[in-house]
## 1
Amino acid sequence: MEFRHLGRSGLVISEISYGNWLTHGSQVEEETATSCVRAALDAGITTFDTADVYAGTRAEEVLGRALKGERREDLEIFTKVFWPAQPSPGRNNRGLSRKHIMESIDGSLRRLGTDYVDLYQAHRFDHSTPLEETMSAFADLVHAGKAHYIGVSEWTADQIRRGWALARELNVPLVSSQPQYSALWRVIEAEVVPTCEELGIGQIVWSPIAQGVLTGKYLPGQEAPAGSRATDDKGGAGMVSRWLRDDVLTRVQQLRPLAEEAGLTMAQLAVAWVLQNPNVSSAIIGASRPEQVAENVAAAGVRLEAELMARIDEILDPVVERDPSHTGKQAPPANWRVAS
């Protein structure tokens, strides 16, 4: 494993982090989830990302139990707040109001079995709450020792800039952005990345293998493999469906000889590709089996030659999404996973 600073902060994290968005508490049994976390630890991963909304709080609970007994100071544990973590008739159970943030952090800490999180992230931008209120609440959590740093997820460049300015006034470190990013989904490159480079904010990117499409397991003109994310009726299928077009799948298959030339699997090539961006501090991987962790972690420290990067661009260019206006628009809906 190799490590990088999170933006220009002093926090050092593993350049591959482990996330449990679609797996813990839902797709896999807890014994398997724990085995995946153990595999991540054995591979040198120290950074773990989750959210209260994942599997209706169960993902945080499973991760907390899986990490129990580990030396807390040796880990970086990240979680998020925005959506209702569980079904509720309450009108204040979502968003980034002071009330919701203060109540959500206590629930997350209890489920994770820790006194603090290293990074607390705004899971989306809240258009219905004054940004000053949101940032003030986050600042109070940092000053109270419940979070060491704060971050955002799927915010636009303008939203990031406004949040960073307020955080600076409040003397708290807004250090990260967590967007979707892969060789197929590059909407952050035009605006978010340059803004974050200027402000000293690092990217913690999710879905670097495009929900599994960049592994090459989905073939043009064929049914999705049984047991794959495309057949998961609990949420996975909805996210991956936009890539299951023959034009996309055909071009992804053309990456296979490039991966072989580089001595990498398709998944490793995809993870290594996002890590070539110097503004990326870490790439989040997930797993439903421990062996998937071992495969993806092998992308750590891989440096792709400029010629190979150019060939990847040439192959994928016609099917790549680059429009910065799509930032946050391909995210899960507001009730994501709550009912699972």
## 2
Amino acid sequence: MNILISGGSGFLGSAFSNEIMSRYRAQNKALHITWLTRDSSQAHPNDIEMMTYDELTSSDKSFEVVLNLAGAGIADSRWSDERKEQLMASRIKPTESLLAFIKRTSIKPKLLVSGSAIGWYGTQGDKPLTESSGFETDFAHRLCNEWEQLALTATEYGVPMAIVRTGVVIHPEGGMLGKLLTPFKMGVGGQLGDGQQIMSWISREDWVGAAIFIIEQHLTDDASSQTTHENTLQTTNDTTAVVYNLTAPNPVTNHTFTKTLGAWLHRPTFFALPNFLLKLMFGEMSTLLVDGQKVLPQALQSAGYEFQQPTLKQALEGQK
């Protein structure tokens, strides 16, 4: 199998690459992975090929799967107008490059997996949200929706696609957990706001496992049996487009997350940051911290995926 990945060197793309290569080697299956990059000198594993976006414009290579993960971290800095433009451009421009390649190439990919986030649903408190749920309009929704709608253009070229709406990914090498480890290890970690906001999370191991599961399911002859009307998206033709929530089946409150992380690290969690201070510190971006989302992986579980780390305690203990 040939796989092309934008964002391949990132927090998720690198873990995905390592795991699928390990699995295919163990099964004696052929696999070739190419990472898209803007810097041809970027460090990378020896068994990964690098291709620049400029090279992609004239490449005659064919790929069975395209995995579109490029995008700046939404929680990395305060949402100024300039930062919002950066967040949008970092998703739109790589997706446009991939779509131009897909349109031009004579041998179309069998599947495009395109990233998104549970921010698509907007802030809806503790209301259970599945792939068929509606949304509330805010910046996070607009960011995810523009990214998704652009990616759906691939279906106009006859390429089936799966959109993966990702929750908070748990792993100490990066993401939210990576940022929290230092203050929690110092004993100054604590809950955010009143701690009752729901956090929809997924371990990085299960994110990778779910992504591989989705790819393998959709490349089988019975791929159509893995879709339901609840997670099927409307397209301009008969080409399949589906959405999956990549979240664990057991979301937790921020209070529970705080206590579970403190217990795992054997550190106290007495401190708390009130809502007004979070809003003062982070502005509009504070919605990611103080407003909850209860997003459930209905489509993923209906398709038969079995979580390896379905609880937060298991996800944290799996890192030891």
## 3
Amino acid sequence: MTTITLVQGDITRQSADAIVNAANSSLLGGGGVDGAIHRRGGPAILEECRALRASRYGKGLPTGQAVATTAGELDARWVIHTVGPVYQASGGDASLLASCYRESLRVADELGARTVAFPAISTGVYRWPMDDAARIAVETVRNTPTAVEEVRFVLFDDRAYEAFARQLD
């Protein structure tokens, strides 16, 4: 049984086997969580992302998919990069957002990760409504078979923390 915990704070300060990055499809860094992970994790993450772009993901990582790299200088073994849907562009397609969590857990299982820290995927510049994103995230993690022992949602502010806490009640 997977334990789900909530933490308010900075995902780049978490100690976990894997930290999930809400990446953009380029895998080359960006704003929000993505930029913070690349800045704190250092150049090793970007190097591996560039190699992935040069090999398997020439057109970028598709929305809803996930891939792992080193965690560089973060207190983790791996970063699992997943591309969340843009709310307006996807028409609010919940299956794409759920896929981010499912695919990240699948990659975590392949790696042997036991603790995984997730941000609230797509809730920043991709504008997914927080309450709906929290519902999708919690339901998907609860209903996805995985060997991961702890899923930790690391939430940046009070609003996000409260939305996820309501889903756990």
